[in-house]
Amino acid sequence: xxxxxxxxxxLAGIVMSAGAVDLSIYDVQYTTDAGGASSYxxxxxxxxxxIVTHVWxxxxxxxxxxxxxxxxxxxxxxxxxxxxxxxxxxxxxxxVRFDNVLVEEYRGTTFLQYDPDPNSPTNPxxxxxxxxxxxPAPVTLTAADLxxxxxxxxxxxxxxxxxxxxxxxxxxxxxxxNADNYELLQNSTVAWAAxxxxxxxxxxxxxxIATGATFESITGIVEQxxxxxxxxxxxxxxxxxxxIVVPEPTAFALVLxxxxxxxxx
Length: 265
Hints:
The chain is mainly beta. It folds into two domains: 20-130, CATH 2.40.50.140; 139-245, CATH 2.40.50.140. It contains four helices and 14 strands. It has helices at residues 2-17, 25-29, 152-155, 251-263; strands spanning 22-23, 44-56, 61-66, 75-80, 95-106, 109-114, 125-130, 139-141, 162-175, 181-186, 189-194, 214-227, 231-237, 244-245. The strands form two sheets. Strands 2-3-4-6-5 form a five-stranded mixed beta barrel. A five-stranded mixed barrel has the order 9-10-11-13-12. Helix 2 (25-29) links the parallel strand 1 (22-23) and strand 2 (44-56). Mean pLDDT is 87; it is low at 1-17 and 251-256.
């Protein structure tokens, strides 16, 4: 009987150890794979302590999470397949934990798949640990960090993170798989951006985006899109109108404006 009880205890220990392991966002995202794939691709895991930076409602709702402790490899996106799941509940600034979620590489991006199956012992769940947290500050990048043609070795570490490009000019538009990308130029270096996740845009592009337009900065979420050999690019996806900052008028322009006003009095 003692041997039987010992065997049962050992078996229980094995089953418990086979459960989903607790990981940080950094643990899931960091990789040395040349294509950027997570080493946990295909595994069911728990992800602890991510702050919601954006919730996007589209063909699949998405929740973007970021860990302010990590300036690289510090963000990830959750794809919500439910009608009343985390995307309908969570708000920007929530600190959230996800349990029993599947890690899946899909078209270049590392996703956490929130897809409940009542018949599965690894049914996913989430817990809001606190609310009203500060959203991590954007990391300031250059166009070379988001260069197109793509350089996985440089850009992959910023996937799903909030980033800013400063002093940029819009180049060619109507690019990419859905013709919703546009170039951001820093001198002769080219990065790509998109407004499809911008909840204020109201159209394919923010109304201020036009070839030749210059901006003090553009902020957004770094997203990768890869499909076969046809498409492979990173894009900076704006979230709100405030992510696009128009340059302040120069002192000289203000003087000219003052002269013009005085002449018409």
